[in-house]
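thoughts on my protein:
***
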Amino acid sequence: GTPVDLGCEAEGRPPPLLSWFRGGTVLREEPVSTGLKLVLPRVEPDQAGTYSCVAENRHGRHNRSL
């Protein structure tokens, strides 16, 4: 039931599209040039799983998971 903030930062030219996923579900997605936060206001056990941030532009794709 506590809040969790997850941050993701990426740089690129052109600026990448940043996306947060849980499994195959997109939770948040924005074209930003700095970072994208995912705020989970009240974390419950059913929200357990792997969260991934993906940065993508025409030159490639990079991701980190937790």
Remarks:
- The chain has no helices and six strands.
- The chain has one domain: 4-65.
- The radius of gyration is 12 Å.
- Strands lie at 4-9, 17-22, 25-31, 35-40, 51-57, 60-65.
